[in-house]
Amino acid sequence: MSASSKNVQLVQKAIKDAEESAKVYSQHVDKAVATWDKSNEIYYGKERDLKNFPPIRVAEYHPTVRFGVIPDTWFQAMYEKTGVTGPYMFGIGALTYLMSKEILVYGAHLFEYGPFIICVTYMIKKFGPQIAAYTDDWVQKTENERYYKPLQTVKSNIDRTIQTAQEEITRAEAIPMLAKAKQENLALELEQAYRSRIMHVYKTVQRRLDYHVAKEATRKSFQQQHMVNWIVDSVKKGITPQQEKETIANCIAELKRLSQTAKA
């Protein structure tokens, strides 16, 4: 098995594992969403009278109060009918009524309520903002550590998983192109090897042909030279000393004649 086939199998296995993990996670998400939808239908469905019985929500901060404990909404409700002094007169009148009817009985501890209320109000005004800031900071840190930070971690992990899956999908899509490119490179290498071998055969045949041509030329040259030497030797052997002298004499006479003709 080639290395490319092993890489393809590894990538396919990784993609299959990622798809199975995504399928399992999708099933868990679908189950959780179905549970939420069912709970929402039970508590906030069509049969719930949200107008007359709205859902109770815990306020993050307490409403505005006066004198430390009395809600400001009570004063606002009485302003339209009694004016600005109405709520205060109502409070004083109610306190007078309770005392006159001895509903609020005088006692040894009754006079302690005033200083106690003053001290508590002072402490609330003095240290309340600091304690509120500290508790708000503690609540914010607790929410971040127990809710937002784990949620952000899960979100980051999911984003990384999605990004990794997208990268693997992109790589898987590029595998056919890579395989095709490798096939083309292999074809080019085979073509190069084929042409190299053809060139080697061509040069080998060329050398052999050149050898045979040179051999034939040498043979013909040797035969021709041998024939010439044989003829020359035969002619030399056929000439007698007397014929050689006569020939030399004729040559000398001819040269003299030619020289005299040239002078004339």
TrEMBL record:
Xref: InterPro entries: ATP_synth_Bsub_B/MI25 (IPR008688), ATP_synth_F0_suB (IPR013837)
Ion transport found in the keyword field: yes
Main location: mitochondrion
Pfam families in alphabetical order: Mt_ATP-synt_B (PF05405)
Stored Gene3D superfamilies: 1.20.5.2210
Annotated SUPFAM superfamilies: ATP synthase B chain-like
Top-level division of the source organism's lineage: Eukaryota
Keywords attached to this entry: CF(0), Hydrogen ion transport, Ion transport, Membrane, Mitochondrion, Mitochondrion inner membrane, Transport
One Gene Ontology term, aspect cellular component: mitochondrial inner membrane
Biological process according to GO: proton motive force-driven ATP synthesis
Protein location: Mitochondrion; Mitochondrion inner membrane
GO molecular function: proton transmembrane transporter activity
Homology family: Belongs to the eukaryotic ATPase B chain family.
Function of the molecule: Subunit b, of the mitochondrial membrane ATP synthase complex (F(1)F(0) ATP synthase or Complex V) that produces ATP from ADP in the presence of a proton gradient across the membrane which is generated by electron transport complexes of the respiratory chain. ATP synthase complex consist of a soluble F(1) head domain - the catalytic core - and a membrane F(1) domain - the membrane proton channel. These two domains are linked by a central stalk rotating inside the F(1) region and a stationary peripheral stalk.
Quaternary context: F-type ATPases have 2 components, CF(1) - the catalytic core - and CF(0) - the membrane proton channel. CF(1) and CF(0) have multiple subunits.
Protein name: ATP synthase subunit b
Species of origin: Cichlidogyrus casuarinus
Origin organism lineage: Eukaryota, Metazoa, Spiralia, Lophotrochozoa, Platyhelminthes
